Amino acid sequence: KLIVPYKLKEILVTQAQLHNKVQELGRWISADYEGQELVLIGILKGGAIFMSDLMRAITIPLSIDYMSVSSYGTSATSSGAIVIRKDIDADIRGKHVLIVEDLIDTGLTLNHLKEHFRSRDTLSVRICTILNKPSRRQIDVQVEYPGIEIPDAFVVGYGLDYADQYRNLPEVWVVDTEG
Ligand code: PRP
Ligand code: MN
Ligand code: MG
């Protein structure tokens, strides 16, 4: 089935804004976890682009792993159902875990992930996201490293997709849903 693309309306977050926020988060995380054993866990697929930028903005030793989690399927709004497609391979016992996401919207994905890690004998589990839509929250999940706050618009790029497309856009765009 061919997916008819929406038109891109305007840039909401520029490459420079993304870059500056990534550097700021990197400095902040480097200071907080200095001398500790840190594991970054990137949440596929959306988190992959931010993850690769963030890890290079962190100046302390760390290890990485990835999980594949999905809630949206190909629809534009959350279905509420979260599926773990791939768990981590790494042993995170006795380590500090930092979950790396592209967007926190309803909070359902992160809430589910925090529950998932709760019983795994980690020293801590925190959340870092590059984009945050607090106005859409259904569950009040604590975000220790919130990135850029955005309004409740349909956005794509920098990892965020519509029907698995547009993730490769280097900035965050608003999609024209009227067109
Ligand atoms: C998106 C986004 C977050 C999640 C946020 O992922 O990347 O992981 O939704 O939404 P929530 O706060 O309402 O749970 P998606 O499920 O679309 O999978 P993807 O990363 O593979 O696109
Ligand atoms: Mn995601
Ligand atoms: Mg998605």
From TrEMBL:
Its cofactor is Mg(2+). Pfam families: Pribosyltran. It comes from the Bacteria. It is an enzyme of class 2 (transferase). InterPro entries: HGPRT, Hxn_phspho_trans, PRTase-like, PRTase_dom. GO terms for cellular component: cytosol. One of its GO terms (biological process) is purine ribonucleoside salvage. Belongs to the purine/pyrimidine phosphoribosyltransferase family. This is Hypoxanthine phosphoribosyltransferase. It comes from Paenibacillus donghaensis.
